[in-house]
Amino acid sequence: MAKGKQGNNLAANASGLFTRRGLAALIERQLGNDLGWLERDLRAVKNLGPLISTLAPAEELQAQAFQEIRAWVGGRTVAPLTAAVFGTVLDRAKADLRGIVPRFCEQLREILTLRQTLLVQPGAHAGLDRDLAALLPPDFLRTTPYAQLPHFPRYLKGMKLRAERWRQNPAKDAERAAQLAPHVVAAGKLRGREGGEAFRWLVEEFRVSLFAQELGTVEPVSAVKLDRALAALQHGIGVTRAEPPPVAKPILSAGVTEKKVAPIKNFGALDRLFPR
């Protein structure tokens, strides 16, 4: 009886391990032809020409895009693994790949057009070039989850609005920049750590709430909320998103203050910081 129970536990553990490590690879294997067409179709990135010339070679951006889209398609798995579940996941992956390249290239065109506008923005504040380079380094397609890319135009439009408003009131800009600065530093230190990715995007949302409130954020965010999230991460509580971030909604009031709340004491409290 004990041996049978032990065997069941081992089987369950092996199944869980396979689900985590093997399902994505199995999906990719089944999508061999689809991924081959994806890689070939992504040559369309070269058509962006001048927009990518000051960022990275087209071949590199194409390779980065293929890597991230492939990871995105194969990485959205569920457990436990059954034949029915596998079939559903595979069908969804095939549907996701259908017509994805034109949509991706149009999205990339919008992002790079906004980048080009910011590169020649007249009379912008001193930190604009640094902020732009941090958001869009030459390998940004490799380091950015595919599901996060739709938010980049909003981040870039926020930078543009900030640059325009800085000329009107440099003192106010400096005050808001001081609120943002420690969180940007913290996000940099958390890169590569569990929960660091989610914290980074919260910081970007906070940037929008400070300098371009009318563009909206995916969720309410403030300095207090970021401080609480950072404290949780420093105590080893990782934060991840199971689904792509929702569509941003306009903020009705300034997102820089928040009613003081009790410190986080358990994992359940942390869930409230990152609603799904």
Spell out the blueprint of helices and strands.
Layout lengths: L1 H29 L1 H10 L8 H4 L4 H18 L7 H15 L2 H20 L8 H8 L4 H4 L8 H17 L1 H20 L6 H16 L11 H12 L32 H5 L5
Helix pairs in contact: 1-4, 6-9, 7-9, 9-10, 9-11, 10-11, 10-12, 11-12
SSE pattern: HHHHHHHHHHHHH
Q: Termini separation (Å)? A: 41 Å
Helical percent range? Answer: 55-70%
Radius of gyration in whole Å, from Cα?
A: 21 Å
User: How many separate domains?
Assistant: 2
Strand content: under 5%
Spans with pLDDT under 50 lasting ≥5 residues? Answer: 1-18, 240-244, 250-276
The helix count comes to 13
For the report, how would you describe the main beta sheet? none
Specify the structural class: mainly alpha
> How many individual β-strands?
0
Q: Overall mean pLDDT score?
A: 81
Q: Note the overall shape.
A: globular
Detailed description of the structure:
- The protein has 276 residues and is mainly alpha-helical.
- It has 2 domains: 1-126, no CATH class; 169-276, no CATH class.
- Helix content is 64%, strand content 0%.
- The chain has helices at 2-30, 32-41, 50-53, 58-75, 83-97, 100-119, 128-135, 140-143, 152-168, 170-189, 196-211, 223-234, 267-271.
Provide keyphrases for this structure.
single chain; 276 residues; mainly alpha; 2 domains; 13 helices; 64% helix; 0% strand; disordered N terminus; disordered C terminus
Concise overview:
With 276 residues, the protein is mostly helical. It has 13 helices and no strands.
